[in-house]
Amino acid sequence: MDAETEAPDKRRGKHASEEFRALAEGATILRAQVGSGVHGTSIEGSDDRDEMGVCTEPPEYVIGLRKFDQYEYHTAWAREGGLRNRSGPGDLDITVYSLRKYMRLALAGNPSILVPLFAPDSEVVTVTELGAELRAMTPRIVSRQAGHRFAGYLHAQRRGLLSHDGKGRDVTRPELIQRYGWDTKYGGHMVRLGHQGVELLETGRITLPMPEAQRETVRVIRTGLYTMSEALVMAEELEARIRELLETSPLPEHPDSAAADRWLISAYQRAWSGEAS
Fold first, then answer.
1. Domain of 116?
2. Which of the chain's ends, N or C, has fewer CB atoms near its CB within 10 Å?
3. Which residues, other chains included, contact 256 with Cβ-Cβ below 8 Å and sequence gap of 6+?
4. Tens of pLDDT, residues 127-175
């Protein structure tokens, strides 16, 4: 059975086949920590580790009939219960995107996708020549389009937190609901996103880890020392500031897609010819 007709392995998930694992591991150009550890907002004994990577898939997956968008694996899947398991403290969650998909998402300003571009060297697990070039492309990639995405995500998260009697749209952390009355981790993510959206629009960068005052606020939210109402007020104010900055930010209105396209073509050609890794 070939790659196109092979049924997904339900024990692994549709993005976690051995074929995709080998492809991603053999062609990764950039991989970095992207979760609460890199943001500086983790709570000891409470968080897993999230890593995101980018790979240059072979030509048969770009100009041939095979398809590869991403590889995904969670160590929690190896335990009894498989795909149903939530990641917990000590687990590792990995997502490796094809370079083409990563660039599309980055140009659109997807907040989580941008994190590897700003991760400090100490949090970069893998970087090749092409990976370094990708990070150097950041000024061409980042634009006010990211501000629209940050504002949209922030608004959606505020709505989500208000749903289901304040327990969140998808209650996946019942232990926090029981302890604090609301999903404080979700609330911390929401406020963190707001602060980073403001910084990106003001400066063109995201400081990682977050500035101490901001990360302390997020950690305090996560430990239940702010109420849900207080966190929602913070998020509303940050969203309003982001929307103001959409008019005044020094960032260009749109990313330099033409430059990104030229670099993508060159990157794939050099990767396939062995001229660059």
1. 18-138+257-273
2. N
3. 140, 141
4. 999 999 999 999 999 999 999 999 999 999 998 888 755 555 455 678 8
Structure tokens at 11: 């024990």
Task: Give the Cα-Cα-Cα angle 26, 131, 20 (nearest 5 degrees).
Answer: 30
Q: How far is CA 82 from the centre of its chain?
A: 23
Point out which residues pair with 93 in neighbouring strands: 50, 74
CB atoms within 10 A of CB 57: 27
User: 49-55 and 28-33: which strand pairing?
Assistant: antiparallel
- Tokens matching residue 215: 């990360």
User: Which two structure tokens, joined as six digits, stand for 265?
Assistant: 């073509």
CA separation for the pair 219, 41 (Å, rounded)? 6
> What is the model's pTM?
0.89
Same domain? For 94 and 62 the reply is: yes
Pairing assessment for the beta strands 124-127 and 70-74 based on DSSP bridges: unpaired
Considering only CA atoms, which of 170, 168, 272, 183 is closest in space to residue 226?
A: 183
Mean of pLDDT over the chain = 90
Q: What is the CATH number of the domain that holds 133?
A: 3.30.460
Answer yes or no: are the C-beta atoms of 190 and 231 closer than 8 Å.
Answer: yes
Q: How many domains does the chain have?
A: 2
